[in-house]
Fold each of these.
Amino acid sequence: MIDESQRKAVVLDYYERVNDKDIDGIVKLFDAEAIVVDPVGAPPVTGEEAIRAYFQRVVHEFDTHDVPGTPTGAQDGQSVAIPLKATINNPQDPTGGGRLDVNVISTFQIGASGLITEMRAYWGLTDITPAGT
């Protein structure tokens, strides 16, 4: 079990790597058997190859830029929750010019190894607005 401040640092490092479009760096933060669910309700993405493919899409197709809020630790020795605003390309706009803001709450489970074992993103259709509004 890693301490709360270390868990929060892993989560903030994750967002920095997403914003830097560092696919290799992102994947290295995840356990080989990690699970990513984004949004909650979608099928889980599991395993290194699937997680790499998922983040290729996040970084390149959606051109995601995340602005994380303050992470909050849990007393279970593994969990962190964090609010964020994700700005992404609108998948409905074939020109790629339309950007969207998505209000998200993400939860992370950090294993004893210091790697992410689970990430879940909570957002619904009412959490999406045109960027900058």
Amino acid sequence: MTNHRVPEARALLNTAFGAYLLATSVHAATKKANRPLPWPSAFLVLPLVLPTDTRKDLPTQAVYSMSAWLTEHPQHQAAFAPRAAALTDYTRASLRTAVRHHALEVTAAGLHCPRPPKAASQAPNEEVADCARRAGLVGRWLAVVEPALAFNLLGVRP
């Protein structure tokens, strides 16, 4: 099967890159909450981080809560459900890649990052670094919001 995606889309939808973003998010979440991230929350990370329009509107620091940010950016809440559905298989594949390469561990309590991922400032280009920084922010948000509430805020069901 031939992949007809443009090179930028192929790069962003590379499962190794998705695994890196998920590990970055899980690491930030577990560091903030001192507990594993519930695995359903992982399906919220990539649809918030990968689309350029959403990523550019995410705050650079966790000064806003997820609910406050969504109140100020209702267009992202409206666009989230179809994006999440479109990225579900990619998220699954990225999770498998992360587990296979020991970037994430699945425990009874949720996802755990056994070692810190490479820092965003060391990423090979600015877009990669920006995605990683925003994945960390989303992880910190998800650390303090119950998964059911996060899904509800974003207008999707787990």
